[in-house]
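Problem 12. The chain below contains 234 residues. Write out its predicted structure in token notation.
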Amino acid sequence: MNNIYTKRQSLWVLISYFLGYTFLFQILALDILLVMGQSLEDAITNSSYIYVPLTSVIILYLSINVIKDSLIYLKENFKKLIGHVLKFGGLCLISNIICGNLIRFITSSSAENQQSIIESLNKAPALTIFLGIIFAPIVEELVFREVIFKKIYIKFGKNAAYFISSFLFALVHVLVSILSGNWIATLFIIQYFVIGYFMCLIYEKHKNVIASILLHFFNNLIAMIMLLAYLSTI
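Solution.
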């Protein structure tokens, strides 16, 4: 696996996501909207319209060479990519459903990340859909596979790369449960770990982040369609 990011670019991608997106950019957006006179409730709801594009612009700018390389790979290997996305996507979907239902059966609870998405769909559907099927597949795969997986794979080997990349990916998705003290719901870390594992599988197979981006897009698109179908029945 060849590094396209420089060491400095890799570092700034990680800082922009883990420190910026999950903390500093949200506070900055909230402060801006409060200064503009919005209520706290409105500012919390609307802050995503600031910190999400800000994170996207920074990470995409840092990743311009990676994106160019990925688009070339997509053009040259389109049919193979689509075939593998459908194959791994189907396996991921089945594993996701089984794992999620088992955890719900054991804990009698649902993932707080999923509940948060449902609430967001009711408040800001367009932004939530964008976050789920555009922002998350691109930004998260650049962070967790192109930077974290690849760096660890090169330095410490395959097993460490799979475990650490999948674990950090899963940890981010149960962060709401951890911060709220809902320790039972943190068991859904297993479900997200499995999803992260499939992203690593297709990334390693193609050695190009466009593969895991497309699989992530496919997975989130199916999940979003299912959530929208569920919401239409209540």
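Discussion. The chain has a mean pLDDT of 93. Students who got a different answer should revisit the alignment rule from Section 12.3.
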